[in-house]
Amino acid sequence: MEVEKEMNSSSGRRDSALRILRCQESLKDMYTDSNIFHESKSTSQIQLQDVKRGSVIGRGTFGQVRSLTSLLFTHETSLTQASSGNSMNSIDDNVVEEGNSQSSNDPMSDISSPQKYVLKEIRGSILNQGDATAVEAAAIDLARESRFLQLLSRHENIISVYSTGGCEGSRNFFILMEKINKTLDDLIQGEWKFLQKNIGSIAVQKYLKEQVSDQQHDFDLSKTSKDLKREATNNFLLLRLQIIEGIASGLSFLHEHKDVKSSNIGISSEGVPIIFDFGLARELKDKDRVDEEGNYKLTKMVGSFRYMSPEAYKGEPYGLASDVHSFSLLFYEALALEKPFHRIHPLRFQRAVFEKKKRPKINKSVPKDIRQLLERGWHPEPMNRPSAKQIGDFVKTYIAINK
């Protein structure tokens, strides 16, 4: 209905055309001096009538996520997981690719299961408030996120995008992607807190052993309750470290994702951690580099306040180490089962964290080498932090040794 209203007026058509043009100019900037975006074949698109929208199941600053009630293909459309390349198409290049055969293992070939996928679009409240500037900002944000997803979603720890619909920059543009049923925050607040509370239960101890063991082993009831609880505590740590290792792998692949927080990490039905929501992602380009330590001239205060690095908060040049700082606080959250700095009053937060450099207190029950890794990860000086890959490699080795 909103799209029809816009297109039925000459002013609406003019505003729409200008917004699409400005969006295309913004996208071209992504390709200028880029080391990752290149001209190549675009991912397939589906027509608006091919998708029947369901209810809104999630909202962000600019976008919202909807469930699907059905996928009705009126054309033979090739819908496959996005490849690493995509092109800068003209604003009229918005047609469905026809005549392409689908791969037998194409996840989108199972069109009878729309519940496996979601649609991300511009937030309804932005479209309805009548602020043309806000609509344009949201449209550009979604289009840029789409380009990043099409480039990066081939990694198992990055959300998969399968197609787009509508024209980039238009009010009805959307991204078709895999559905995430729960976030890491849900996992922490639900299953993990339950397991922690009931760590002395034989049923929980059996469950934890099954989750972290490579092979099936009989549960040894001849052990003392103290030994069983000690083993379960170790297995619970390994269970969480497996998730952390996956996030580190995805983050290492991304190189740059400025909104690392538990509500932006999803968990697949197979228990695999998935990084999603790329509205804040951007490439670190050589032209923006300001020193040899890997810092770049970027925007101030990007990301979530609680997880933000000191250099990002202060508006200083920052780079990949800023993500490591945020990730280390997320790592802490997975171990402590609580938000970092949750006891600090919001009015005292900036002074305590960014001026006095307060950091979370790690429980002594956490192994010393992991405590030291966390402390290095959120070190005030970016150059003293390890890389995401180094954290991932350390965690992977720790799991292998302590299974």
Automatic annotation (TrEMBL):
Sequence intervals crossing the membrane: none
Entries under Pfam families matching the protein: Pkinase (PF00069)
Chain intervals for the UniProt region annotation (Disordered): 82-111
Cross-referenced InterPro entries: Kinase-like_dom_sf, Prot_kinase_dom, Ser/Thr_Kinases-Pseudokinases
Entry superkingdom: Eukaryota
UniProt domain Protein kinase: residue ranges: 51-399
Keyword ATP-binding belongs to the record: yes
Presence of keyword Nucleotide-binding: yes
SMART domains: S_TKc (SM00220)
Biased composition (Polar residues): 82-92, 99-111
Keywords: ATP-binding, Kinase, Nucleotide-binding, Transferase
PANTHER family reported in the protein's UniProt record: MITOGEN-ACTIVATED PROTEIN KINASE KINASE KINASE 20 (PTHR44329:SF288), SERINE/THREONINE-PROTEIN KINASE TNNI3K-RELATED (PTHR44329)
Designated name of the protein: Protein kinase domain-containing protein
Organism: Chaetoceros tenuissimus
Source organism phylogeny: Eukaryota, Sar, Stramenopiles, Ochrophyta, Bacillariophyta
